[in-house]
Design a protein that fits this description.
single chain, Metallo-beta-lactamase, Chain A, 7-stranded mixed sheet, 4-stranded mixed sheet, about 25% helix
Length: about 230
């Protein structure tokens, strides 16, 4: 594992991760805020190996779970960085009762409002996903809203992801559409707001970063499913 810079004051950390023997990897996003502190989105496993390197960048002030699924390694991160506040959706409190979790509100907390805008996506029922926009680097940060798994050397992973309409393309998985998406109109309205942000790069939890034609690819992916108007 290493800190991979993608622009000034923003890094990603790649973690191995699998579900049902499907190797899809996951990703922590690190932002250095204007106050010098660090904001960690979706902390993954094994961050202890990078603890000194992270703390050399600045004190870790926020550990953020972006939805009700990306929380498994929050306790580990909270032990490593006990001074950091933990943030997450309201539905996370019953999954992590041992953690003091600050609820992600519609408006970004004062701690990161100067650097990062956020929007809670409507229409996704239990997932309760919030998306983020790092203004200075023009980076949109998603979690499970879209996948971008373009390559895999693992046959079962390729098969499962193809069946889930989540291999070789950027966009929402079939599982998200069938299990979490309850109100396509509401999600479309949220995505219209997302598209007002001036982003050039997309970071998501699973798959390759989108670093060209990011806004067009976002529009196209959700227009194909008639969630967004073309």
């Amino acid at each position: 594992m290493k800190l991979n810079p993608i622009a000034e004051n923003i890094w990603v950390i790649e973690h191995p991760f699998e579900v049902m023997k499907v190797k899809m990897g996951t990703r922590t996003t690190v932002v250095r805020l204007s106050n010098g502190g660090l904001w960690l989105l979706s902390p993954g496993s094994g961050l202890g190996a990078l603890q000194a390197e992270l703390e050399a960048l600045g004190p870790v002030e926020a550990l953020v779970a972006p939805n009700t699924m990306h929380h498994l390694f929050l306790p580990e991160a909270a032990r490593l960085f006990p001074e950091a506040k933990v943030y997450g959706p309201t539905g996370l409190k019953r999954k992590q009762p041992s953690l003091a979790i600050e609820s992600l509100q519609p408006e970004a907390p004062a701690l990161w409002a100067e650097d990062i805008q956020q929007l809670r996506l409507e229409g996704l029922s239990f997932l309760q996903e919030t998306v983020f926009f790092h203004v200075s680097s023009k980076t949109l940060i998603l979690t499970d809203l879209a996948f971008n798994l373009q390559h895999s050397e693992h046959a079962w992973s390729r098969l499962f992801l193809r069946l889930n309409d989540a291999y070789g393309k950027f966009g929402p998985s079939r599982m998200l559409r069938k299990m979490a998406l309850k109100d396509p109109v509401a999600l479309g309205q949220s995505l219209e707001q997302v598209l007002q942000w001036d982003f050039e790069t997309i970071v998501m939890a699973h798959g390759e970063l989108v670093q060209n034609q990011a806004k067009k690819r976002m529009q196209d992916a959700f227009s194909r499913l008639e969630i967004l108007k073309s």
